[in-house]
Every structure is written in structure tokens, then in C-alpha cells.
Design a protein that fits this description.
Mean pLDDT: 94
Strand content: 15-25%
CATH class of one domain: Alpha Beta
Radius of gyration: 19 Å
Shape: globular
Strand order of the largest sheet: 3-2-1-4-5-6-11
Structural class: alpha/beta
CATH architecture of one domain: 3-Layer(aba) Sandwich
Largest sheet: 7 strands, parallel
Helix content: 25-40%
Distance between the termini: 39 Å
Amino acid sequence: MPILVTGAAGFIGSHVCLRLLERGDEVVGVDDMNAYYDPALKKARLARLLGRSGFSFHEMDIAQEGALEAFSGAGIDRVVHLAAQAGVRHSLENPRAYLRSNLAGHLEVLEFCRFLPAFRHLVYASSSSVYGGNTKVPFSEGDPVDHPVSLYAATKKADELMSHAYAHLYGIAQTGLRFFTVYGPWGRPDMAYWLFTEAMLEGRPVRVFNNGEMWRDFTYVDDVVDAVVAVLDRPPGTGEGAPAGVYNVGNNRPVRLGDFIDTLEKVLGVTAVRRDEPMQPGDVERTYADLAAIRRDFGFTPKTSIEEGLRRFANWYRFEWKK
């Protein structure tokens, strides 16, 4: 039966579509192709999917009430919901975009799943941002997440709460994945690894926040896709409680920002011009994923080191994207 993937032209979404198609699944992709960053990148990602057997694409805004009803008779039984307005800092400038995309959009997906005749499982994107300024590390799924430090984080926590309510009320099996700083080829140009690479190759300074004392659990996109597909194939049971789960998807090896730049210098063969700046509003000093739960339940273990992942990204950026 077909799998619906929202955000199919996005970074993670396009990689997930490709993996599902390669293993023989039929995929219905949707994306609104918005201009948060250059739509040419989204079109290029989509071009890798169009024409492949089993793939169909529909440009639409899933936050529009009832838009997804167009697929109610398509036989869809699973949904991977990755469409969202991303970016912590952008949420300070354009908060309404987050309410529409991340809250209204998530509700429309839940309502769509609620009435699917063959529905089996919804897997949706949450974020490590829900942990806010937690000082206990590593971050575990059972930690309190009641103090977000950005609107983006608040919308992602709200998505988890909405999903639990629908699982409880209607038995909709679903799993939220808290992604930790995903990077890799075909990534997002607003992310640090892209911005640093671009600046270093052009001889411009890179902005180093908090004297480089920022730690991130960088997670390579192929490892993230491994987790998404493994979870998708095993919906939560209907034992005690609602059929809903939440898991961290990270690398479990945080990297200091200064060391991250050192690694980029190595793979690019370029010395960075570093410009120190204070920590930004809505940002946090550290993210660090406890993977015990997803390792126990799905056997997930990330495979890609930061050096190997950055090398793959740098090669893609220099010899494919910028050639």
C-alpha cells in the first residue's frame, strides 16, 4: 500500500522518499515548495524522485483545511509527516508561519489519519529543541520538556501532545522522532554546516557563537533515514495506554562548535576566519541524545562519524551542487 510523505521536497523528506522507493514501496509525496530558502534546491531534490517507479508528487499546503482528503481513496496505510516550518531563529521573526505549518498542518495530518480506512502508523518529526535549556545530559525521552526557549520548540512539543491525544481518543498508532541537528548532502542552507562551508570557500568569516563553546549532537542524514524506516515498519502496540511513542534520533556523540570548524577546515583544506559573537536568542549551549530507548526497541545505532559525514557533505556541495 502507498506511503504518504509530507515535506517530500525537503531535506529529510527527500532522503526518506528515496530510501522507500529503493526498497520497493509506493510513495505519495506532498510539499508546498515554499520560499523559506531557495526553492531551486527543493526542485533539485524533487528531480531525483520524479520519474521513479512508484512515486507521485502533489504540490499543496497541508495546513489548508481538508487538503489531504484528496488522498483518502488512495489506499494509504502509513504516513511519514516531515513537513514543517523549521529553524529556531526564524521563529523569532515570523512566528505565525510556525503556528500555521507546525500546528495547523499537524492537526490536518492527524485528522487525515483518523479517517483512513487502512491506517496503520503515523511517524512524525519532532525535535531536540523540545528539551529547551535542560542541563541534564544526555537528554532522555522521560526528561521534563515544559520550558521551551523558542516558539519552534513550543510548536514541536505541542505536536507531541496533540498526537498523544489522538492516539488516546481514536487509537491512531503514531511515533514522534526528536531529531538532533541533522546534516548531510542536499541539506538546508540555513544550517551551520552549510553556512560555514559556503563562507569558508568564499573567504568570508564564520560566525562563532559563545566562543565556540556550543555542543551539538550532529546526526548524519542516512542514519536518520535508517531510524525513520525502522520505526515506520513497527507501529506501537495497543497494550496499556495510548498507542503513541517518542524517541530520540541522534548521534550520541556531541561535538564542540570549535572542533566542528576544525573538522571542516580539514575536509575542505581551507582555514576559517573566525568571528566571535555572543549566543543567540532561542539557542541552547548543548544537545546530547540518549539513544537507549530507540536502540532497545528498534536496534538503531548511528554509523557515521562527524568527519566522514562532513566530508560527504563537502564533496556534494563542491562537486555536485556548486559545479
